[in-house]
Amino acid sequence: MSDDDFVYHPACRLSDIQDNIGVPVEVDGRVIAVFRTEGEYFAIDDACPHKGAPLADGVVYDKSVTCTWHGWRFSLESGCWMDSPRTRVATYPVRVTGEIVEVGIRKG
Ligand code: FES
User: How far apart are CA 68 and CA 6, in angstroms?
Assistant: First the structure.
């Protein structure tokens, strides 16, 4: 998949993001959690697939986020639940343009 497969939408400003703290944003009608950790940006659906907790509030560690409600841990790279990778949250590409953090939504 290339950048041409996505439409990038402004999500927040660079100054809105701190390392290892999720930021909930609304992009194209979805609520998405944006993270910066270990020098990289990640974006995943903000709703935990277990009971719907906001993953932006989760604990970030080793490119993963742990849901604060019941401890399910998700890879920020793949969106997979670490205990059972068939369960996952959607992931989105992130790019930074100037001071703006943009999230890519797949076309179509
Ligand atoms: S709601 Fe996330 S682990 Fe239960």
Answer: 31
